[in-house]
Each structure stands twice: as structure tokens, then as C-alpha cells.
Specification:
The longest helix has 21 residues. The protein has 25 helices and 6 strands. Among the domains are: about 150 residues, Alpha Horseshoe (Leucine-rich Repeat Variant), CATH 1.25.10; about 80 residues, no CATH class. Helix content is about 60%, strand content about 5%.
Length: about 475
């Protein structure tokens, strides 16, 4: 049993081992258990007591016992394997009628069916879930129909309406909703942009709900084939679609299991990097760079691929970092991606423009969340001896970060100076003596774990006790 708003629902279930409506060539639903006549003293709908005049009737959909006034309709129910007309109660008729119509070969009936189901998904979701309406929307999503875009628009809207109910998201995933959403987005690629906007909007919104739920759904979305469509929709002419597609792709990228697929998708990285410098929407730029932050936290091979593409595109990260933005999270994300890439030894030549951009921005005033990423990037570059000369020229600026509020900025500045001491001991000491030695020592000694490690290392080098 699942509670949907204030209603209880016992989700419909497909007979057989495969419960995925999208993967089924055709499906039959399990019949509901019947309430026995003896267990029902009154009509389940109107609550009237049964007697000799008010006789009992079973609804073939829900299995409840009802009076003749509340169970008047007879419908064929192919969804239950019943082709002859059977009694259906007034509560089940709206959904059952739509599902039955879906079995027709007439496209007009398909359109009527999904139009009705779309409305019922909004107004009576529990009935749709209980009586197979969700299964039918998923099943029809893969069909090429003459009433193509109108039908798909209602399917997409219905699935989005259902996905808004968090209590049934897991169940929707189990019956193939992500396959359906992926197929809907694939259909959009062959449709005119203007005609398909409502359908794409609902399909993307449903996908985003699944992607926000858990990593399992993020992986299922990739397995269902959503990635190519998402990448294409990131460049959609409608700004709202482009934004939702980008934020959804960002959610999928946050799952480590998906990152290799994104990296390996043909031209995906290059398309996203060009999007950074070409998109007029700063929210889109922010989220594309967020994707790059996530991807750049992967393996050295992944970092190399990203750095190579960035160099091929003319230094996108450096350009994004140095450009003026109203949305400063763009600068923070660009600096964060550069910081991650800077940890790779093999890519330091490719990252020269990024290093120059970081050092140029290091001198400017920034909010703490931007400053943190800039000094982190600087500290990561400082691990490579090839950059020691460049960084020593900016030592006064690095020292100024020792007094930034927030221990994370402080410790990255300490880390940078320690790396410079390792590479250029005498020059770094001389520069610190002119400016910053006291600040450096104060910040260095504030971190107990660092001091303990230094003491341990000294004790190993110069043992306190000797035989």
C-alpha cells in the first residue's frame, strides 16, 4: 500500500516476472482480490446497507462490493484479460475507460485515452496508480502514433504529474517510467521545437525529479539512454528548456558511476565547454561549470581529457574566470574546476592559461566562496616545482590569504607556502622575512593535526631516546 496525498493506493502489478511496462510487448494486470459478499454489509461508495432490493455487485477492477446504483457500467477490460464487458464501479470507470480505449488500434482513441489519463493523473492519482493508468502511459510512450505530438504531450504531462508525488517515485521507476521519459525526449529530437516544448518541459521535469531522488535513478536514467537527448536539449532555443536540461545533466553527473559515460560521449565535453562561453544565460553557465567541477574530481585520465579539450577550445576555464559576471558562482565554479585539474602532473603545460587567470584574480577582492577556490587552485599549482618562480612573484598576495576569514582559505595559503619552501627554500624564506613570516607561523601552528605530524616526523628523524 502507498499513500498518495490523503488516499491509499494498492499499485497495479503486471502478471509474470517482468514488471516493466515499457519493456513489455503487451501486458496483463493481476486482478484485484475480491471482497467476499459476507464481508460487505454496505456499499463501498454510497455506504447504503444491502438488502433484498439493494443487491451486491462486484467491481471487476477494484474487487469491492457495491450496490446497483454505484456499479452500473459494463466495460471490456483487456488489461485484465477480460474481453467481454464486465461490471465496473463508478469510482473505477474513468480510469478503466481510458485504459480500455488504449488497446484500440485507432489513434483517435489513443489520444482520447491519454488526454483523460493526463487529467486523472493530476486529479485522481491514486486511481491511476491502482488501475493500470500509469502502466498504460509508459507503454504508449514507445509507440509511433499518428496523433504523435499531442499524444506524447499528454503522456509526458501525466507522468510528470505522478512523479510529483514522492511516495510513488520508486514505484514509477520500477515499472519503466525512466525508459518512457527517455523515449519521450528522443521523440522530441524529431519534432519541431515549437510544437514539442510542452512535452519536453514535462518530460525533463519528471526526469529531474527522478535524478534528485537517488543515485540509483541517476544510473537508470543513463542506462535508459537519456544522455544524448539531454546534451542536445542543453542547446535548445527555449531558455527554460536549456536550463532544466543543464541542471538535470548536472544531477546525473554527480553520480560517480555516470561520469565515464559523459566523458566518453562523442563531443559532449567540447559542446559543454563551448556552452560556457556562448550561453547568454548565466544560470546555464553556472551549471555547466558545476558539471566540469564534478567531472574534474575524477581520475587523472579524466582530468587529462578535460584539460585537453579546454586547451583545444581556447582556454574556456580561464575565460570564464576572468570575465565579469553578475552570478559570481560562475567564477567560483571555474576556479574550482581549475583547482581540481591542477592536481594532475601531466597537464601543467595545458593549464598555463588557467594558472595565469588564477594568479590575476588572486589579487582582486572576492566573496569568501570564490576566494577559497582561487587559493585552493594556487595551492594545487604550487605542488609542481615548474610553477615556483611564477608563484614566488605573487607571494605577498598569497600571504594576504593567511588572514582571510575562514580556516579553509588559511590552510590552503599555508599549504601553498610550504610547497614553495620545498621547491625554493632560500628564496621563499627571504621573501617571508620581508613580509609574512609571523602570519605564516601563526596560521601554521593553529592547526594541531599539522603540528603533531611535524613533531612525529621530527621524532622519527631525530629520535628523543637513543641506545
Amino acid at each position: 500500500m502507498i499513500r498518495i496525498d490523503s488516499s491509499e493506493a494498492y499499485p497495479a502489478e503486471i502478471e509474470g516476472a517482468n514488471k516493466n511496462a515499457f519493456q513489455s510487448a503487451e501486458f496483463t494486470l493481476k486482478k484485484s482480490s475480491w471482497i467476499s459478499d459476507e464481508a460487505a454489509n454496505s456499499c463501498a461508495i454510497c455506504k447504503s446497507k444491502f438488502n433484498q432490493l439493494r443487491r451486491r455487485h462486484h467491481c471487476r477492477c477494484c474487487g469491492l462490493v457495491l450496490c446497483n446504483k454505484c456499479c452500473t457500467e459494463k466495460l471490456p477490460l483487456p488489461q485484465y484479460g477480460l474481453d467481454a464487458p464486465e461490471r465496473v464501479c463508478n469510482a473505477c470507470v474513468p480510469v478503466a475507460t481510458c485504459v480500455t480505449m488504449s488497446y484500440s488500434n485507432d489513434p483517435a482513441f489513443h489520444l482520447r485515452a491519454v488526454t483523460g489519463l493526463s487529467t486523472l493523473c493530476r486529479d485522481s492519482p491514486a486511481s491511476v496508480v491502482t488501475l493500470g493508468g500509469a502502466h498504460m502511459l509508459i507503454y504508449l510512450s514507445k509507440k509511433k502514433l499518428k496523433t504523435h505530438m499531442q499524444t506524447l504531450m499528454h503522456i509526458s504531462n501525466g507522468l510528470h504529474s505522478l512523479a510529483r508525488h514522492s511516495s510513488i517515485v520508486d514505484w514509477l521507476g520500477s515499472i519503466g517510467a525512466l525508459n518512457a521519459v527517455s523515449k519521450l525526449l528522443e521523440h522530441a529530437e524529431t519534432s519541431s521545437p515549437k510544437e514539442s516544448v510542452p512535452m519536453i518541459t514535462d518530460a525533463l521535469s519528471a526526469l529531474r525529479i527522478f535524478a534528485k531522488t537517488n543515485n540509483s535513478f541517476k544510473m537508470q536514467a543513463m542506462d535508459a539512454g537519456c544522455l544524448p537527448s539531454l546534451l542536445q536539449l542543453c542547446n535548445h532555443s527555449d531558455p527554460s528548456i536549456s536550463l532544466v536540461a543543464t541542471t538535470t545533466l548536472c544531477l546525473l553527473a554527480e553520480c560517480p558511476a555516470n561520469q565515464a559515460a559523459i566523458i566518453n560521449e562523442h563531443n559532449a565535453l567540447r559542446a559543454m565547454l563551448y556552452k560556457v562561453v556562448q550561453s547568454p544565460d548565466e544560470q546555464v553557465t553556472e551549471h555547466v561549470l558545476r558539471i566540469m567541477v564534478v567531472l574534474s574530481s575524477g581520475s587523472d585520465e579524466t582530468k587529462h581529457v578535460i584539460s585537453s579539450e579546454d586547451a583545444t577550445c581556447g582556454g574556456v576555464f580561464a575565460e570564464a574566470l576572468q570575465s565579469a559576471h553578475n552570478n559570481l558562482q560562475i567564477n567560483a565554479n571555474a576556479a574550482s574546476a581549475i583547482a581540481n585539474l591542477a592536481t594532475s602532473e601531466r597537464d601543467q603545460v595545458l593549464l598555463q592559461s588557467s594558472l595565469r587567470a588564477v594568479l590575476a584574480q588572486l589579487k582582486s577582492s572576492h566573496p569568501d566562496y570564490v576566494a577559497l577556490q582561487l587559493i585552493r587552485a594556487t595551492a594545487n599549482f604550487s605542488t609542481h616545482s615548474a610553477h615556483a618562480s611564477s608563484l614566488l612573484q605573487h607571494l605577498n598576495t598569497i600571504v594576504s590569504y593567511l588572514n582571510k576569514s575562514g580556516s579553509k582559505s588559511n590552510i590552503h595559503a599555508v599549504r601553498c607556502i610550504v610547497n614553495l619552501l620545498k621547491h625554493r627554500n632560500a628564496e621563499t624564506v627571504a621573501a617571508l622575512c620581508r613580509n609574512g613570516v609571523s602570519d605564516f607561523l601563526l596560521r601554521f601552528t593553529e592547526h594541531d593535526d599539522v603540528i603533531y605530524q611535524v613533531i612525529d616526523a621530527l621524532n622519527r628523524t631525530a629520535p628523543p631516546v637513543m641506545s
